Amino acid sequence: MLSRTADNLYWIARYLERAETMARLLEVGSRIALLPGSGQGFRNEWDSLLQASGTADGFARKYGDPVQRNIESYLFFDHDNPSSVASCLTRARENARIVRTALTTQVWDALNSAFQDLRQLERTPRSQAELARLTDWTMRAAALVRGAIEATLLRNDGWDFLHLGYHLERADNTARLMDVKYYVLLPRADFVGSGLDNYQWTTLLRAMSAHRAFHWAYGGEVTAAKIAHFLILNPQCPRSLISCAQGVTGHLDRLARGYDRSTPAQHQARALLGRLADTAVDEIFDEGLHDFLTRFIGEIAALGATVHESYLSGDAR
Amino acid sequence: MTTYFNEMYQNGAVRAPYARLNGWTNAMPAELRQMKQAEAEALFRRIGITFAVYGEGGDPDRLIPFDMFPRVFTAAEWSRLERGIKQRARALNAFLVDVYARGEIVRAGRIPARLVYQNEAYEKAVVGFRPSKGVYSHIVGIDLVRTGPDEFFVLEDNCRTPSGVSYMLENREIMMRMFPDLFRENRIQPVDSYPEILRRTLASVAPLKCDREPTVVILTPGHFNSAYYEHSFLADLMGVELVEGQDLFVEGGFVWMRTTEGPKKVDVIYRRIDDAFLDPLCFRPDSMLGVPGLMDVYRSGGVTICSAPGAGVADDKAVYTYVPDMVRFYLGEEPILPNVPTWQCGRADDLNYVLENLADLVVKEVHGSGGYGMLVGPRSTADQIEAFRRRIEADPENYIAQPTLALSTVPTFVDQGIAPRHVDLRPYCLVGERIELVPGGLTRVALKEGSLVVNSSQGGGVKDTWVLAE
Fold first, then answer.
1. How confident is the model over A183-209, as a mean pLDDT?
2. Which residues of chain B lie closer than 8 angstroms to A315, CB-CB?
3. What is the ipTM of this complex?
4. Is the pLDDT reported for residue B243 higher than 80?
5. Residue B296 belongs to what domain range?
6. A198 band by pLDDT with thresholds 50, 70 and 90
7. Final residue belonging to a domain, choices B383, B403, B423
8. What is the tens place of the pLDDT at every residue in B99-139?
9. Which 3 state secondary structure label does DSSP give B430?
10. Do B332 and B448 belong to one domain?
11. How far apart are CA B390 and CA A199, in angstroms?
């Protein structure tokens, strides 16, 4: 397939995943705003959401202080914010329009309807566009597209490039979300046995839609080690770093088999997965969670660059 | 008051090809019609067939209005059109091969040398080069108008990259989906073989250097182009890659496309970009759309470009006047389809006549297209005519004039019910090893009452075009 087509498919998935992450962040933010007496803490939470999405600077330039209404607009509707839900969906749809022929009618329909709905939402008076409705809508739209991809798309190389986009973006998003709240998970002596600050860890798990799943998987007392294990090393958690690494490796291997040739991307992905599989939670805390995550984000970015070089840039030989 | 030929009703009776449509419309109540119209629009929007108008801004996803009332030809009518169209396509290609070689037609004094060799569209870069199978224009779109039962005229030729064929195909799909009964009652010849014939045509002109199943691609200027939908639609139906200039590169005397598995050789390029943008090393150096070095490969027989660079010299509106002569000169036949009488403002006598009769004529720019830069005398105000007069006087060579034709009408759904509206027809003739024409084309309709301008950029719509079986 044309490298440019593969690139478009890859970015459709990345933008969709990013839009969904943004919607989750907004949902978490709005929940915290409902907590009683969260005065100062609430301000900090919104701020950390902006940090997590990498949009704090842009927001500060445009609005100054984090006021909830402005943050909602900025993260959902604002086309000046390249990571807003609206920006991501628009770009996903534009990429899809370019490679319309590489998609099934169902996938295009799902994506194009989401885009048309978005244009409707943009015309809706803000007083009628409740945040819960917006975030629900985003996650549903993303799920519809993903469902259409799973159910109807030919399992060819294009399918692999879509999923490479999904997994790489998700790995990056999960790592960033954790990194912003890494201090919550520091196993300080006074937390041991007393449980973590309730809304802090809830925030983190909710941001990954993993709040209930966590309890099913672990039960008992919530500890930093359990949460870190769940979000980094547990292959059952669909957003864990190791799940994403497995996904990337699996799709790269399929490509290598289909094309009957390997590239540096396969080796790099397998090495990354191998390292994760050999890691124990204690080692992560010994290294320092923040350092571990920073290193991981760098590694995922490097893997993304190698995938680009090997398949998407058009320089493959 | 001009009377117009109505293709459905003649002397108060329904003409034969439309016989079965009479009952169809009578049996359709207004509510059903509105429902169907909305359904059609939803279908078009869903498949993403939209049309952007240059320079108008507004909704980039605008739809070309689709009128559900079909336009119908009998097999006999079509058979004459088909012969005339193929004849013209042959003559135009013979002309192109000639003017880039010995120029016999110019030597014979049948067309002024200046019109050919000083023409902006005359491509010096391909002089002396004979394209594969001697074909310059592989898709010839010939715009036809009708003024009576047997009176058809060629309005203009499109030898470069005529657009609109996706509408011919989609209009048919949508009609079949919405009114299956009509297709059971009428024996309508199918058009859906067009993409396959196009692919075969393109493959048949692969360069001699190609020793395997040829790789065909469509070269598009990109997704911001107003016809991008059509490019991707055709690529999809033909099962070929849709590439942009950046996807191709030149190496070792061949053209390659960048794929995820490494470079893949390309044999035939159906380009939907203008000559000037094809190769920045040969034409416009600032072109970002083309492929550097493409023309070198082309001239050394490493790749075929369709339509061939330089084909534009045959569809110039000033050269148009000479096409009947081309038919006689190259084929030794009489033209089956006549031209519309045309005055060339570059000639002193013609210019005088045109300036005296502006109010009755249609005046066009020689290189204009899309209904821009034209004057429809009978529908213009005195001020508009005067303004246009000054433009002609400033640069007479740039204008031609034609009588205002009494374009035929076909019943069309309008707000008040059904009313006659003026139409034209663009069939798409495919020229490769063989010359082929699918039975159908794009009927464009001027939706405004009384309007004679059918261009989609000027408020025109489209209709499904039927050719009945014997």
1. 60
2. 258
3. 0.83
4. yes
5. 208-302
6. low
7. B403
8. 999 999 999 999 999 999 999 899 999 999 999 999 999 99
9. strand
10. yes
11. 78
pLDDT tens per residue across span B285-313: 888 889 999 999 999 999 999 999 999 99
Region A251-278: what's the mean pLDDT? 96
Find, in chain B, the residue whose alpha carbon is nearest to that of A111.
B46
Q: What is the pLDDT of residue B285?
A: 87
The alpha helices in B67-132, defined as continuous H runs, are 75-99, 104-107, 113-117
Whether B333 maps to a domain, the answer reads yes
When CB atoms are compared, the residue of B48, B247, B258 closest to A100 is B48
Do residues A18 and A149 share a domain? yes
DSSP type of residue B274: -
Chain B CA closest to residue A161: B260
Residue linked to tokens 């996650």: A139
Residues of B in contact with A161 (CB under 8 A): 260
Chain A from 89 to 128: CB within 8 A of any B CB: 94, 97-98, 100-101, 105, 108-109, 112
Among B382, B403, B424, residue at a domain's last position = B403
Residues B99 and B166 in one domain: yes
Same domain, B333 and B349: no
Note whether A2 contacts B259, CB cutoff 8 Å: yes
Give yes or no: residues A108 and A199 share one domain.
Answer: no
CB B207 within 8 A of CB B267: yes
For residues B93 and B241, state if they share a domain: no
Q: Of A105, A138, A153, which closes a domain?
A: A153
Tell whether B41 and B69 lie within a shared domain: yes
Before B307, cis peptide (omega within 30)? yes
Same domain, B115 and B168: yes
Q: Tell which residue, B447, B440, B406, B339, has the closest CA to residue B73.
A: B440
Which long-range contacts (C-beta less than 8 Å, at least 24 apart) are formed by B108-112? B108/B329, B110/B322, B110/B325, B110/B326, B110/B329, B111/B319, B111/B322, B111/B325, B111/B326
In Å, what is the CA distance from A160 to each residue of A106, A237, A299, B144, B236? 18, 21, 20, 48, 20
Of B292, B195, B191, the closest CA to residue B240 belongs to B195
Query: Containing domain of residue A293, as a range?
Result: 155-317
Considering only alpha carbons, which residue of chain A is nearest residue B237? A101
Say yes or no to pLDDT of B319 above 70. Answer: yes
Contacts of A3 in chain B (CB under 8 A): 247, 258-260
Q: Which residue is closest to A95 within chain B, CA to CA?
A: B223
| Confidence band of A283 (pLDDT split at 50, 70, 90) | very high
Q: Calculate mean pLDDT across residues B442-459.
A: 85
Determine the residue among A2, A5, A162, A311 to mutate to test chain B binding: the one whose Cβ has the most chain B Cβ atoms within 10 Å.
A2
Question: Do A17 and A63 belong together in one domain?
Answer: yes
**For residue B142, what pLDDT is reported?**
95
Q: Which residues, 6+ apart, have CB-to-CB distance to A286 below 8 Å?
A: none
Q: Give the pLDDT confidence of B3-42 residue by residue, as tens digits.
A: 789 999 988 899 988 988 888 888 888 888 888 888 888 8
Does A233 lie in the same domain as A133? no
pTM of the model: 0.87
Q: Higher model confidence: residue B259 or residue A70? A: B259
Count up the domains in chain A and report the number: 2
Same domain membership, residue A148 and residue A3? yes
Number of domains in chain B: 3
Q: Are residues A299 and A161 located together in one domain of the fold? A: yes
Residue A2: list chain B partners with CB under 8 A. Answer: 241, 243, 247, 257-260
Asked if the model's pLDDT at residue A189 lies above 70, the reply is: no
